[in-house]
Amino acid sequence: MDFHNKAYNRFKKTFKEVDDFRQEGKIKHPLIEILFIAVVATIAGADGWIAIGTFAESKEEWLRQYIPLDNGVPSHDTFERVFENIDVVSFNRTFINWTERLSKKTKDRIIAVDGKTLRRSHDGERSAIHIVNAWVDENDMILGQLKTEEKSNEITAIPELLEMLFLKGSIVTIDAMGTQKKIVEKIIEKKGDYVLALKGNHQTFSDEVKLYFEDAIKNNFEGIEVSKKRTLEKGHGRIEKREYFQTNDIGWFEEKHLWAKLTSIGMVRRTITKKEKTTVEVSYFISSLDAPKEEKCELFAKAVRKHWGIESCHWILDVVFREDDSRVRKNNGASNLSGLKKIALNVLKAEKVTKKKTSLKMKRYKAGLNEDFLGKILEGMNSTI
């Protein structure tokens, strides 16, 4: 059996668990074929239902190398209708099961969780759709997603997304909105650890930690066991110094028992100098990680530093996959289209065919033009899916 069929068979084995909502006897195109075409079309530059339908129509003979297409290719209306009605939970769970198999479940892997608004998905009085994403550092890929109707709903969506993920031995990082007792409980329940930003949404707690570190630094941490790390980066006329501080000295915090496994607090001070102008940014964190004695706080620093990776993925989704431009909103369409783009993003990041460094945007462009190149990506996808 050649790799063409292997690629499809492997895809079918992975995505067969997606529920088909359609009535038996009225199905013209198998769901797995619709899913396969949509993923391949998205890899090759399609960003919406019409583009996916156009790809299918123009590449029908080429697609027959992989899938039967007994009734020809679906129309763009079919793609739109199907993805608007595919169950989001079923599709997301299949997506997560696939990425979890790909992801290295190494000890202390960083899983960053953050929300992203699909800016043009607003409709009349309804606000734009918001999607919470999880990104894993070791593979630089989106691990999973969950849709919410409002940004404020991140607080309820994050525990639901965490419930679907394998967290044992991982360190979860979330910005201040996700610094909630129930979210902390879910991470610890799933046998993970956390490094969470602390800001004004817990004003008293944040102020107390801020005053603690200000006083400790003023007194050079006299009588306090603290783990420190310092980095210096230079480039493009810019100097950035980062100072990390982490301590287990939290016995003074009266509500410590309300936060599951709260073990340490941390501070990061960034001093940026550019064109003789210096700015200082200070951030505070809570964590279940132990501050190492007589050692640098490498793990805490890694978690804080790596959290930016999810922002990079969000930027790629906007620039390379035009996610912010999408007007898709009806039913489950926006969430499932976003899932398609993340599958394509993960496949393109894992692609090893291109020898020299090529941007993801150029990979998509080349995949749309060159069938041989697209075929090689699918051959590689066979090992990832």
What are the SSEs and their pairings?
Layout: H1 3-15, H2 31-43, H3 49-58, H4 60-63, H5 76-85, H6 88-102, E1 110-118, E2 129-136, E3 141-148, H7 154-164, E4 171-174, H8 181-189, E5 193-198, H9 203-218, E6 227-235, E7 238-247, E8 264-274, E9 277-287, H10 298-306, H11 308-319, H12 333-350, H13 360-369, H14 371-384
Parallel strand pairs: 1-4, 4-5
Antiparallel strand pairs: 1-2, 2-3, 5-9, 6-7, 7-8, 8-9
Helix pairs in contact: 1-2, 1-14, 2-3, 2-12, 3-5, 5-12, 6-12, 7-8, 13-14
Structure description:
This protein has helices spanning 3-15, 31-43, 49-58, 60-63, 76-85, 88-102, 154-164, 181-189, 203-218, 298-306, 308-319, 333-350, 360-369, 371-384, and strands at 110-118, 129-136, 141-148, 171-174, 193-198, 227-235, 238-247, 264-274, 277-287. With 385 residues, it is of the alpha+beta class. Helix 5 crosses helix 12 (333-350), helix 6 (88-102) packs parallel to helix 12 and helix 13 (360-369) packs across helix 14 (371-384). It is elongated, with a radius of gyration of 23 Å. The two termini are 18 Å apart.
**Poorly predicted runs of 5 or more residues:** none
Relative helix content: 40-55%
| Biggest β-sheet: strands ordered side by side in the sheet | 3-2-1-4-5-9-8-7-6
Tally of strands? 9
Strand content bin: 15-25%
Structural class: alpha+beta
Count helical runs. Answer: 14
Distance between the termini: 18 Å
Shape: elongated
Task: Characterize the largest beta sheet: strand count, sense, and whether it forms a barrel.
Answer: 9 strands, mixed
Overall pLDDT, averaged? 89
Order of helices and strands: HHHHHHEEEHEHEHEEEEHHHHH
Rg (C-alpha, Å): 23 Å
Total number of distinct structural domains: 2
